Here is the input.
Amino acid sequence: MSEHFQPGQHPDADRLSAFADNALPAHERQETLAHLAQCAGCRSVVYLAQEAALEDLPTLELVPPTRPMRKPWFAGWALAWRAAAAFACLVLAALYTHHLLLRGSNVASTSIASNPSTHVESKVGQQPLPPKDTARQVNQRPSGKAATVVPEERKSSSSSYAVHGTTVQTLPLSGRQVSELSQLQMTPAPGSRNGAIGKFTAGGRVQGNAPAGYAGGIGAGQGADFNHVAGVTAKKNTVPLRPEVNASASAIFTTPAAAPPAATSPLLRSGPVQLSSGGPIAIRPSAQSGEMATLSVQDIVSDSHLKQQFPQQMQFHLPSHLPTVSTISNARLILAIDSGGTLFASQDAGKRWKSISPRWTGHAVKVNFAPNASYGTMEAPTATKMQISRVPAAPQYSIQNVPQAQATMGNATLTGVVTDRTGAVIPNATVIAANAVTAQSITAKTDGAGRYGFGNLKPGVYTVTARSPGFSTQTLTGIEMADSQAVVRNIALDIGAATQTVTVQAENSSIQTESTNLNAQIVDQEAANVHPAVFELTTETGEVWTSTDGRHWKHK
Amino acid sequence: MDAASSQPGDLVLALESASEACSAFDAELNAASAVQDAIPEGLVAELWLKAEGQASGITQSEFGVALAAIGKKCNYALPAPILPASAQREEFYRTLRLQDLALAQACALGRDVAWQRFLTLYRGPITRAAIAISKSSTLGSDLADSLYSELFGLKERGGQRVSPLASYSGRGSLLSWLRSTLAQRHFDHHRRTHRETSLETIDMPATAPPSTPLPEELNLLSGAVARTLKVLDSEDCFLLSSYYLDRHTLLDIARLLKVHEATISRRLKRLVGELHKQLLMNLQAAGLSERKAQEALGADPRDIEINLRRLLQTSQAAAFTEQTKQIELDSQ
Here is the structure.
């Protein structure tokens, strides 16, 4: 029984309705609740009234709302929050745009290694010219006409470029050189993940002869050495390059005039050209074959920048787990220096590495092939090396060119891997590509990874023959090569006598086609086989050490 | 059930002199109270305008008198011992539903314009509410008509027409008051008609079963349950009664208490858990070990002579819904 109601006394309708409307003060509500808990009749009345209210919900609109109306969205602080969010988005967008512009300007005005330590040196007249028969040496046109510069162009996909080395220097070019270089063309590589790998073509012949800041990749073939020389950035004067087309060349080589034409970059199509980097750049006329210049570039890149500037496949997984700052390979041995200055050597295409005990003081910063007496001569018409360091999606193939220029007048490329039936690669296998119409043949050797490549092939039908000691000869026939087509043909050799020949009719459809504008590496096979490589290591103190096997080093 | 019938009876004093003295004292007290409860004219005018008293046909003075009576009746929403300040009185007046109050008071005074407005506004809702309560259109119409006649003041008390609308205080909405009144009238009608059909079984406590000797543990358990339920909070008792005795749903209870259904569920769950703990404590306090107390709690409820309805509420009657269900079953 309620303590507040006398026996037989019940709350009237006024109190019950006020209870139902939650309009009772606390003490009356407690009294009413206490009574309702004990009085089934009043509970029934309350629930009946509530039931009637639920049945008559539309009429509740007659009752003025007790709760205040909800504020409109534009009232009070609600709009302030939205304004603050919009302002924050604007600030972020402005920062991002500023960052993009900054990066584009930086890349356009600096070299590939937009790093404080990056510098470009002019070695014209100072640097010994490489021998004519080395792969490093740029091929010359016998006619002495204008050669083609085919540097690599790299697009930086990272957004964390630092602003370094913004010095822009105008090349002291003569009128013709300027006009030739002004015709620089750049082609973003189709299929490139970053879309900015391309080529420069110019009327001037430029020879790349640089102590490499980077040397990467697996060797082109047996004895075929290669390296990455430092980056040079070419840009159109006063025209800021877009980030996606910034011309960060990692190598400058000359190629024959018959080199595949590249698409023209609108940004580099005309106007004076500036090569800018941290150091001086000079292009001088060639001694023998017309316009030729040498660009010597030293390129030292910090660890943080290295991963951003080099594709993943160029980075070896060294035991130190540090990024690679410099690599060199002669296909039998790969030397790599990590960012900690430790030298590593690998004889199995980078699968296993061995640390080389340093005899020098300080950190090793660069490894390269030592220039010898045969390097740097300009008379080597067959010494051609074209390497573009970045192959975004596809593995790097070395496309070996034959000395006969007439055999390589096209744009097609043929690459592949020679393996045995178990899938193991066969290094040093001989691969011959023969044109079925002209009967011209090109010979190449597979590299340590079993890869071979032929570049600048004429369109036509080819027959590819691969042979290796201990394996039967395999012949692929009917390989159709169209203009500017890149065909990949992998060859599997069976174990057997070399006299056994297996002929396979190639299918009409290509396994894989690539653009010939992709990075290629043209190596003078002959020169590579003749001259063994001598490695040269440079330390941070400037000491130069040489070695023929990568293990035993002598101070130079 | 009616509020008018629920007032306590007058106290009759035997001594004439004492009666006269008290009357004089009461007159002075009432005069002082009237002065104290007087509402400033400005406030009355403001509230009258806000209540649209002119549209309802009630004068400003009549509205002021009604306000003063309501404030005194409700003690300005304050507990009884507390004397309200002027600000508290003003705040109380401002919290009232002034438009509904003016209309109800005007109708109670028999103003035609008020009745026209009342019928315009509430005729439909009253009919729908009556049908919903009685669950029959015929009964609902009859119930609504009878309420109209009652509200109009067909009943006379002391030669004056009395309308229940005069008891409306304006704390809740007038529509809610009308629904509650309809529910009361329907409940009274149902109780009367039900009594006519079976007097023995209505509101009569069931005859006590023959007392059979119970085990000691069950006796202790009965006592523990009684003690536990006796100290329950009023709201907890209301929850238990509504949920377990009346079999109302959680949603019904939640709507009535203006809370979420999940809140009621949580509170019931917590309440049952606390009851269990309290029962264990009471049983252990009565001398049972913990193990025996647990066993006693696991006893079959049919073995325990406990009338939860008697423990939870004073009325032995089943809930209204239970009764109506039983009637429907009987009629079938």
Remarks:
- Residues 243 and 249 of chain B are 6 Å apart (CA to CA).
